[in-house]
Amino acid sequence: MEYMKEPATVSQGHILCCQCGIAIPPNPANMCVACLRTQVDITEGIPKQVTVHFCKQCERYLQPPGTWVQCALESRELLTLCLKKIKASLSKVRLIDAGFVWTEPHSKRLKVKLTVQKEVMNGAILQQVFIVEYIVQSQMCDDCHRVEAKDFWKAVVQIRQKTLHKKTFFYLEQLILKHRLHQNTLRIKEIHDGLDFYYSSKQHAQKMVDFLQCTVPFAEIDGNTYWRHPFNSLFQPKQLEEFIVMDISRIRERKQSAGAGMLSTRHTLAEAWVQKTSELNTDHQYFCRTHLGHLLNPGDLVLGFDLVNCNLNDEFANKMNPQNIPDVILIKKSYDRTKRQRRRNWKLKELERDREGMDTDDERQYQDFLEDLEEDETIRKNVNIYKNSVIPVESDTDDEGIPRISLAEMLEDLQISQDATGGEGADMLTE
Q1: How far apart are CA 367 and CA 370, in angstroms?
Q2: Contacts of 42 (CB under 8 A, 6+ apart)
Q3: In the chain, what is the straight-line distance between the N-terminal and C-terminal CA atoms, in Å?
Q4: Nearest-angstrom CA–CA distance, 89 and 73
Q5: Which residues contact 109 (CB under 8 A, 6 or more apart)?
Q6: Which of 245, 234, 290 lies closest to 264 in space, CA to CA?
Q7: Sorting pLDDT into bands at 50, 70 and 90, what band is 259?
Q8: Pick the residue with more confidence: 279 or 192?
Q9: Is the dihedral of CA 60, 62, 68, 72 positive or negative?
Q10: What is the Cα Rg of the chain in Å?
Q11: Helix, strand or coil, per DSSP, at residue 235
C-alpha cells in the first residue's frame, strides 16, 4: 500500500542585515530598509519648500513662465501646477503617488505628499514618502495690474453723437448696465459729445461694438456720401414752446388706403386749436393736427414747435410746398415737473465714469429722459428701474393724470458686491 507524500514546502531563506544584524529577506544591498535609508536618501535634491504665486484679485496661480491659471484648492489642476514646480528634480526618481495634505485655507500653505522610488545599491528598489510644502505668495497678475492702474489700455471704443441733447446716451447707458457690458472696461470717460470705453483686450472692445450695432438704430454713412448730400435737423429740444389747448376734436377712424404704411394703435389723430402761453394776452391761435388726441383736453398744456415764426433754411423751403407745412407740431403733453420729481419713487443706476460735470442743461435733459421713461412703456422694458426707499409710495388718486411707473415694474436695489470698475458685481433683483 502506497501513501501519497505531501509536497515539500520551500521556505524562503533569510539573511542577516550587514549593518544591524536582523533577519531580512535577501536583497541586492544585503541591508534592511531602515539601514538602507540611513545610507541613501533618494529624495536628496528634491526641494522640500517651494514658493507659488497667487493673485488675490482674480484668484489665479502663476504657472511659469507667464501663464495665470484658475485652480481650486486641492484640485487636479493645482496639483499639476505644484508638481511642475519641482519637475526637474523629480526626473531622477520615479513618482508613484502624489496628493494634498489638508491645510487651513487661509494659512497660505499647500502641502503635497509624494511617494517616489529609485534603484539604489546593487539594483535594490527603495521607496520613500515625504512632504513638500508650498508657500503661497501674493503677486498681482498683469491683467489686474492694468485694471488697478486704469491708465493702460489696448483698445478704445468711441461713441459720438452730433446733436445738442444727451438723451440717447442716457438711454444707451441703461442698456449697457442692464446687459452688464461695463464690467470689462478699464475706464469710461465722458466728453462733450460722447463716451470713450477703454479695454485691456481687443476682444472685449469688439463685443461692445457688436452690441452697439445690434442696439443703436443709426445707418452707416461714409464721409463722401454725407458731404455730397449733407443734412441737419430742423429743430432741437431747446426750441420747444409751451402751448395751451383751446379746443380739440378727435378724428374718426378712416379706412387705411393702400400703401399708406402701418397705423399706430398707441395714438389718436385729432384736430386742435392751440395758443402760446406767452401770447395769452392776444387772440392769436394756431390750428394743427396732432397724434396726441388720446391725451389732450381743452385747458391742457402741450409742448411743440412753432413753424410759422421760425426761420427754415432755403433747402427745406424749396423742397416743401408752403401749403403743406403745418403751423405747429405738437410733441408731448406738459405736466408739472416739480410735482413729478417730488412723487418719483424710483431711480436709475449710473456708470462710474470720468465726467466733465453735469451742468444745468444736462440736468434738465436727464429729467426729460426720466419723464420719457414714465410716459413710454416700450422704452421702460429695456431699462432696469429700482425702488427708491427714500421717497414714500403715494396713492394714485389726485395725480392729475401724471404718468407714473407702477411698483410691479420696479426692482429691489440689493447690492451684494462690486466689481473692479465700480459697477454691479452681483445684484439680487426681485419684483
Answers
A1: 5
A2: 93, 116, 117, 118, 120, 126, 128
A3: 101
A4: 24
A5: 103, 133, 134, 135, 136
A6: 290
A7: low
A8: 279
A9: negative
A10: 39
A11: coil
